[in-house]
Amino acid sequence: MSLLGAAPAGTPAPQPRLRLRLSPAAETAVRRGHPWVYAERLRERNREGLSGELAVVYDRNDRFLALGLYDPDSPIRLRVLHAGKPVTVDDAWWRARLAAAIARRTGVHDARTNGLRWVNGESDGWPALVVDQYNGTLVLKLYSAVWLPRIADLVRWLGEALQPERIVLRLSRNAAPTFEQAGFRDGQNLLGDASDASVVFLEDGLRFWSDVVKGQKTGFFLDQRENRRRVGTSARGLDVLNAFSFSGGFSLHAARGGARSVTDLDISPHALEAARRNFALNAADPGVGVAQHDSVQADAFEWLERSGDRFDVVICDPPSLAKREAERAGAIEAYHRLAMHSIARVRPGGLLLAASCSAHVTPEEFYAAVTEAAHRSGRSFGEPVYTGHAPDHPATFDEARYLKAAFLRFEPPA
């Protein structure tokens, strides 16, 4: 069995391959495809491991089980790359794995859409790593220091496979200190000379600004593309409220779809300004040019509760309300409350889109909170339509399934 992998700088030579054994429960989880091994699930190792080192896992019968990237400083001690039969991890293996991720996006990227996700972390076999494209710019977002030894390889693989004009490095809060000690910084160019923070890209022919250097996530919320499309096809002649509007993605799709008016509601003046800038970018579009575009700067929770205004379409897409398991119960209650207040803003015959990006709240819990609020409103509504992850944001294990949305159509009085 050959298990080749780039070793981190400073690795003593020669060193025996890092070998791990797991608890029975962890063995079972890895066999079933779970990509994480927590520190408390490690039973033994043959030596201390270095960050980013390729480690081999053997089962209780001393048979090959998996291999992954070792992270001695994280509760997730091993990020699994492969499980099953032994493989040779060399340059060709990494290239093939990237090519497979790209192939899964066939049909997403076209002349009208050049904003998409090429690699979605563990669900594409690249743990703690995301690659988003905005026009000619790739954003490489890293969530773990295990990739530090492979930065040059990542740039080379991405450059050869996708031919970007520019690659921007973004770092999670947890990973940033280690990368900074090695001379990297959040927002720096790894490839290309462009220094602009903002990039204009296309989504279904609409133009959007993305702040790839300092913006949230990688600069835009690409994961809601399909839900934005659905809103765009449902908005003709209607008044639309976009609560937690951020940079106005839902609003622009609604306006292009023929909405009479769109109202952006957000507590952030910067978000509302970004939405106005996106509307200006698309002013030549017939629908966008004629739709009335209003902005309300307010706490969306309070405004939805206190306002007496009503709309034909209400979109409620808040930021994550449960960033850790301890916040899960409170988040479910908050989603229920938001749904109640959002429903009150929906006119008879109108549509509600309620969305969640909280991974600690399951789809079943979120859908139950929204539909219970709909029942408590006393209003009749049709069969809900539930949606999940977009094709370029696959989710292959429970912790990755963060995005969920519910569309409810409320019936007019008989």
List keywords for this structure.
single chain, 414 residues, alpha/beta, Archaeosine Trna-guanine Transglycosylase, Chain: A, domain 4, Transcription Regulator spoIIAA, Rossmann fold, seven-stranded mixed β-sheet, six-stranded mixed β-sheet, disordered N terminus
What does this structure look like?
The radius of gyration is 23 Å and the shape is globular. The model is unreliable at 1-7 (pLDDT under 50). Helix 5 (225-232) runs parallel beside helix 6 and helix 10 (328-344) packs parallel to helix 11. A hairpin with an 8-residue loop joins strand 7 and strand 8. The chain has 3 domains: 18-83, Roll (Archaeosine Trna-guanine Transglycosylase, Chain: A, domain 4), CATH 2.30.130; 91-200, 2-Layer Sandwich (Transcription Regulator spoIIAA); 221-409, 3-Layer(aba) Sandwich (Rossmann fold). The chain has 414 residues and is α/β, with parallel strands linked by helices. The protein is built from 11 helices and 20 strands. The strands form 4 sheets. The chain has a 7-stranded mixed β-sheet with strand order 16-15-14-17-18-20-19, sandwiched between helices.
